[in-house]
Every structure is written in C-alpha cells, then in structure tokens.
Amino acid sequence: MKNQAFFLLICLLAGSIFTSCQKDNKQSSTEKPDVSNEVLAQIKAKGFSTRNVHAVKGGYLVEGDIFLSTKDLSKKTPINKVRVAKTEQYSTNNLVVSLPRVITVKVTGLGTAFVQGTDLAIQRYNALNLSLRFQRVTSGSADITIQGFYEGPVGGYITLGSSGFPTDAGDPFDLIEMNTHPYAYGSNPNVQYVGSVIQHEIGHCIGMRHTDYMDRSYSCGGDPIDEGDGGVGAVYLPGTPSYPDANSWMLSCSNGGNRTFNANDIIALNYLYH
Q: Which interval of the chain is the signal sequence (predicted)?
C-alpha cells in the first residue's frame, strides 16, 4: 500500500479492477525525471521492486505506497535476521517497541471522509486487543500524522496513499499521505474504502510488508515480480499460510472497496503484537 509506506492502486487489467496504492489512468499522465540506475540498484538490494519507482520529496516511492528516504537507501540491512517469504504474511526487521503502547494519530487538513476513515481503521485495530492501541487526537503532536497531498496520474497510475516502516529506534513511521486529487477517490470518497487504505498504510507504519511482495502479480495482475533475497527485510511470521491469501489486508492490490483483516492477518498481528 509507500513504506508501506503502501499505495493502493486501481489497475485495469484483463477487464477487472484491482486496487493497490495507485489507480490506473493512462490519460493525462505526467512523467517525472528518470530514477538513476544507481538508485534502482540500491532499491533492489533492499529487496523492493524496482518497477514504477518515482522520486518524491526526500526519497522514493516503491511498490506503490512505500516511502524510502535517501537515508534508508544508504543503510545496510542485516541479512542474518531475514527469511525471505513468498506469499506468507511477513514483517520488516524494524518493529514498534516499548509495549504495551498507545499510538496517537492525528488527521490534518483533510475532509470528513478521511477523518471517519481513520476512526474506522483505528476501531478495527483496537478490536484485536493488541499490545498496540491507537487513539485519534485533534491537537498537539501525534505519533502518526495523516495529511493530504495533491498529485495527478504519473506514468499511467495515480497514487492513493503512502507511508513507511518503523524507525531503528522502534517508533512507528510518523506520516501517512492520502491523495486528494479527484482521480484518486472521487468527489465523494467512500468511508470504508478510505478507511481500508488507511488501515493498510498503518500496517506499514508498524512493520508489515505486502503479503504478496514476492509475486505482486497475484493481486495486481501482470508479470510476476520476484526481487530475490538480497538484503530483504522480510521476516516470515509463523502460523501464516504458504499459499496465496486472497483477502489479506496487506496485499499489494485490493478490490477497490472495503477490506479488513482476515483470519491469517490476525494471526500475524498477534504474533508481533499480542
């Protein structure tokens, strides 16, 4: 969905509509400067897809909705902690620590649908009774800020939202960005859809990778993408399936509507944050 950050895309493939952190829109595409081969090599070495990478302020968006800063790319990832997953649920090397913990979330500069969508995502997480609890605040600083950005189609896709992974210090990623361009959610955003995207992006903020990262064609269609095992921060979560999991909330691409945790997602979250 950027680290992560994750974006959801709506891709028109074989007559079906799929949603990930971007939406297919071949018209009025605005191209950005090419990403250098050196940067693409760094992204691949981190274990992320190098397809449809584009530069943003302070770094790059990969896999649709995951934000990698230039600082992130310069770090070496410890390989001894990694087991490469195929279609199982899996996490990054960094997780949120100092548990139990309340994570505050603030929505700033966005409309009612985004506020209600945030409340829906928070309600869904808190219903699991994890050692992480989420609370929306309306003033002061917050652990995660949800704010808008305005960007039209780029390279045939439009970004819906983005986020990132936990810090080395064990704090959640502190920013989720949601696209306010009309091509993203329309003039009257559906609360359950917006909430499902935010729920996905929060998953990245607390350390979840895309369930089908090693074969994004499973949920997005197109050619299979398998980046290999070079430095991948993808730690297998015991108890999750080794076969495609059609309804996972962390799939790279969803159906463009309401999607919450399935039974395997709950196993994964309880393994990390019981």
A: 1-23
